[in-house]
Amino acid sequence: MRSDMRITSSVMDATLLDLPWDLPLDEWSEDDVVQLPKGISRHLVRFARLNGRVVAIKETTEEMASREYSMLRTLQRLDVPCVEPLAVIAGRSDADGEPLNAALVTRHLRFSLPYRALYSSSMQPSTAQRLVDALAGLLVRLHLVGFYWGDVSLSNTLFRRDAGAFAAYLVDAETGTLERDGLSDGRREDDLEVARVNIAGELLDLAAGERLDPSIDPVAVAGSIVEQYRSLWHELTTEQVIPASERWRIRDRIERLNLLGFDIEELSISTGDGGTTVRIQPKVVDPGHHHRRLQSLTGIDAQENQARRLLNDLDEYVAVQHDQRPNVGDEALANEWFEQVFAPIVESVPLELRGKLEGPEVFHHVLEHRWYLSEQRQCEVPLVEAAASYIETQLAYLRDEAALLNVPTTMTMPIVTLQDLQEDEDDGDWRDKV
Fold first, then answer.
1. For the whole prediction, is pTM greater than 0.85?
2. Using CA atoms, how far apart are residues 232 and 238, in angstroms rounded to an integer?
3. Which of 36, 203, 357, 373 is buried most, with the most CB atoms less than 10 Å from its CB?
4. What is the per-residue pLDDT across 321-341, written as a single tens digit (0 to 9) for each?
5. Residue 169 and residue 112: Cα distance in Å, rounded?
């Protein structure tokens, strides 16, 4: 390893030095590389073991690696869902002193799935719509902080299961820019059109490979991101004028935003028309209302829909206990629920099955399974019994959503380079179908 190799990292991990940086990425051995499913990318990407975890390594120019590293760190500070940047490796050269491309190292997102891993002819058609809805929500969150993506696609996104829905995470920020004064409508619409066209192409590609349910219309599903995005953007940003006699609508607006997973940090309220109206303009809108409430009460780190479902069970528990023990506070009861209800269910999963789903998702499915059993038997089924039944009849037969590489991780798509795609050029341009 040459002495002029440079590692830029916010938290230095000495095990980075153990990787064979003096070899081109495509020459790394099986001892270093984790073989995971393929995806399409402009650059060579491989997945490697690093100190008991899995990381993604992308070869690119030093300028692009440094820029993307800084952008991902900024997005993390803004609380936008994205992969975690670990390091930039620059100044690489081989044994003969020939220069090698720089590399960007990111942490592999635990329990995440690439969109291709979620599709098969046996899956429900609703999966396509839920992925697009999740991507629309991510795009809104990015635009709210002034981030222009420039290459919105399913391929540049990872998805985590979220109590029947999906949570989307940005993977590739290479083309993105952050505009401190916010995005113009034109820039937002440009991102939205890029998303529509890219998603249509990706779904058409799956259809050509017979990996998409025949009932799914790729162009229609791709187009639905426009409606979903605009509906969410309108709800989050539109100024509302209401009669002063109907100020309850302020609370109604806040509750609708909470249901979408957002908080209002501040409201700008001014009267007008002789004091007959109130003007409401959400000034700062932050995502994660249910996630933050659950985490503050119990310490559980869950996705937004998971948190909403767990909070429903927690609130029901607290209400029942309040009737019996009115002097016990909510925080004490929340801790009691965690120790006596949530934790025993999650810990009842055998060690060999814990790579199937993460804890909050398991608890969500147990609640669903208990409802199903109770309906079937026409009586209330104890949660512990429902958990044992779910583990035995369903969880045991799920595929792992964590690759068993000594640590939980996820299925991810190794690279297919543009050169690999040249064989398909005779099939015509899919954009003509959009």
1. no
2. 10
3. 203
4. 888 888 888 889 999 999 999
5. 9
